[in-house]
Hints:
Blueprint: E1 2-11, E2 18-25, H1 30-42, E3 47-51, E4 55-57, E5 62-64, E6 70-73, E7 88-93
Parallel strand pairs: 2-3
Antiparallel strand pairs: 1-2, 3-7, 4-5, 6-7
Amino acid sequence: xxxxxxxxxxxxxxxxxxLKVFQANVGKIPPAHxxxxxxxxxERYDIVLLQEPWTAHTKARCLTKTHPAYDTFTPVDMWNxxxxxxxxxxxxxxxxxLLADQIRPFETRD
Length: 110
């Protein structure tokens, strides 16, 4: 698992603290994905950017890892194979001072 920690220059709504951004490549490995989310939460990161997230699919649902402290954003509505699965996943901390919106579907899986 490769991790890079960055501080993003934008600020929260009505708050002067900079956003803390966590970035990692979790290599499609479920425990690495869980560990990255847990570490980001324990260090109070606001935004988590994961490359090569763990994903799976069943006949009825698309699956990925979630965390109770974060809302999950993916660039595609659904996937059913490695060729259609998202290559990135974004998590935004559930905080009334953070506002996040997503436009989907996006043109790429990145």
